Each structure stands twice: as C-alpha cells, then as structure tokens.
Amino acid sequence: MAALYTILVLFLAVFVAGFILLVMGAINFTFSNSEIPPGVCQPVKLRIIHVILICTAVVGKILEKLGICSQLSYVRHMQGVRNVGADQKLFIKDLWFEKVPVRIYQPKAPSASQRRGVLFFHGGGWVFGSLDTYEKLCRSLARESESVVVSVGYRLAPEHKYPAAYEDCLNATIHFLRNAEHYGVDPARVSVCGDSAGGNLAAAVSQTLAGRSDLPRLRAQILIYPGLQALDFNLPSYQQNRGVPLLFRERAAFFALQYLNGDASNLDDVLEGSHIPIDIKLNYRKWVSPDNIPEKFKARGYKPHVLLDCTTEVFEAVKGFCEPTLCPLLAEDAVIQQLPESFILTCEYDVLRDDGLLYKKRLEDNGVRVTWYHLEDGFHGILNIFNSDWLSFSSGK
Fold first, then answer.
1. Which residues are tagged catalytic?
2. Taking the model in full, what pTM does it have?
3. Tens digit of pLDDT for each residue in 68-84?
4. Backbone φ and ψ of 168, nearest 5°
5. Of the options 3.90.1150.10, 3.40.190.10, 3.10.560.10, 3.40.50.1820, the CATH number for the domain spanning 86-396
6. Could you tell me where the beta strands, DSSP code E, fall in 108-255?
7. Where is the active site (predicted)?
C-alpha cells in the first residue's frame, strides 16, 4: 500500500512539474515570439489569453503524440466548451437550412412588425469556430438589436476545402431570404455579418447575391476585421502587427492556405510574396496596394516590399487566391457597385487592418455607402471574447 501511495505521489509530482514547465514554456513563447505594442488595450490580459491559447495547443499536440486525439480536434473542443444555460429573452433552436446546420435566435417579446434578420458567419480562420464558440455573441446580437439572428455552422478546413465554407454560407443565406417571413423577419431587412474569416464569407456572399433579381436584396453587409485578400501579406498592417496576438502574420497566411487546399507547403512563398506572378500583381495593384492606405497608417515603421515573381508550379497550387469568392477584394467594379450599404470594423493592432481599409476605399470609390469604425486600441479577435466574463475587453464591448 505504501509503495502504491509513493507511486501515486511521484506520478502527481511529475504531472504538476510537467504542467508548470508547459505553462512556463508557453509564457516564454509569448514573450519571445509576440509583441504587444504600448497602444493595445489591457496588454496583461491579452498576454494571459495568449498563454491560455498556447497551452491549449501544446496539450493538444501532446494528446496527438499519445494517439488519444488530434491536436485540431482537441483545440476545437476546448474552444467550443460553453455552459450558458437558457435565455429568458430568446427562443433558441438548432435547425438545418438545406444541408447546413444553423442556430436561430428569436426574441421572445412580441413585435408589432416584422423584425430584422442577421445571418452571422463566425471567425476562426476557416479552421476553428463553431455555433457553440459564438453562442454568447449571437445571443447578445439578438437581444441588443431585437433581431432574429441565424448563426451558420459552415464546414471547416482543412477537412473541407474552399469553396465548402463559402457554399454553406451562401446556401444558408439564400434559404433564409426565401423563408424569412416564416421566422417573422422582413425579407427586405436581412443583413449578413461576420468577423475575420466570417467577414470574408459575408463579403463573398454579398457579392454573389448582388446581381440576383430572384431574391430580396440584402439590406447590409457587416464586416468585422475581415480578411479579404491573399495576394499581399506585406501590407503595412502585416508588417507592423506581425507578432501581435491573437493573429500572427504567419498564422494568417497559414489559415488562408488551409482553407484553399489544406496544404501549407507554400507558406514561405506566400509570406515572401513569391506566389503570384508579377503581371497579375500589377493588374490588381489598383486595388491591393500600400498606395491606397492612408499615410497615417504607415507611421509605425512600414517599409515598401520588393515585388517578387513566382514559379508556375507555386502559382498553380495557389491560383485560387485570385478568385473573388475567396478574396472578395479582387471583385470587379461592376460587382462592387451593386453591393448593399456596408459597415466595416478595423483594429489598429491587427494584421488584417489594411484589408478592411482597402475594401472601404473600393466601396466608397464605387458609390457604396460605408460606415467605418476603427478601434485605435483594438487587436484581432477582440469581439468574440467581449462577453467572456473577466477576460473581456472594454473596447470589444
């Protein structure tokens, strides 16, 4: 018995020591590989969140090595763990729109008229995120705006590559537009909304539906720090915020490749800008260029990047990055001109900031009304943790 007790104590000691080393390693990683500029709101809290994310990833890798589960499935599971209970102000129900899982949030209070509708596409780099992950945010959107919110559980990469996520969001939106009145929604007051990768999907869906005469016109597109192009990962915001949590420059390119084809072998080429032929880059330079970024956003040490050519082999692997349904910033003016009123949120300390700024300019140049809000002390991901109790940020709220 004493021997068994000794073994248990030793096992516990090893486990605790291992966990401490894990946490210390994560803390060391965040300090050596990340940079939190002085202007970021609540920097200590942001570091804590980053440490938690790194620890989760490391534990997932350990479990994968032990053959228990994949790192990807573990991280997804941990991010999706939520216990929020019933909501006194909302009817919440899981449904299927065509073959796409959705969760619908309907205010319980009676309404004298048909309500507004919001299709919400979650973020997570097309790889992470779920209906559960965004439960609190969607509840808040439905309650505060007194709208019917439909959260779309689109298929994730790399298991389901482009255009799976886009097609799911498009099909769910079309279904809702055709059946909006069944849910007490005015078909003329339906908007699409998304953050990060979800903002990308919202923009792509808006463009696809812009010319459809057989469906009600979307009321608006709401793009929250959206990722809208994969041609240039050396724009000012990518250089300035390359190591700012919660989205590093390298991870942004990695996620884009995971969504495109599930293959990150060309990551270095994408980061260097040697994945798209120069003639194609020059063709899109009128839309994707540091020249279109206001000078005040280049103040933090931006250095112009030299144009590099690429091999045919690399371009063949990533040429999908030139498709507007994957990179909405590349859509033709004729499509942009038909888009609905738009809201764009950007954060100063976010690698995707300039994607939003470039799209804002494109929309305005084509006569689309744009409301732009810029969080001077914001960082990528600040919104989807706005309601996470003590880990929330005032700017996100």
1. 196, 350, 380
2. 0.93
3. 999 999 999 998 876 67
4. -60, -45
5. 3.40.50.1820
6. 115-121, 148-152, 185-195, 220-224
7. 196, 350, 380
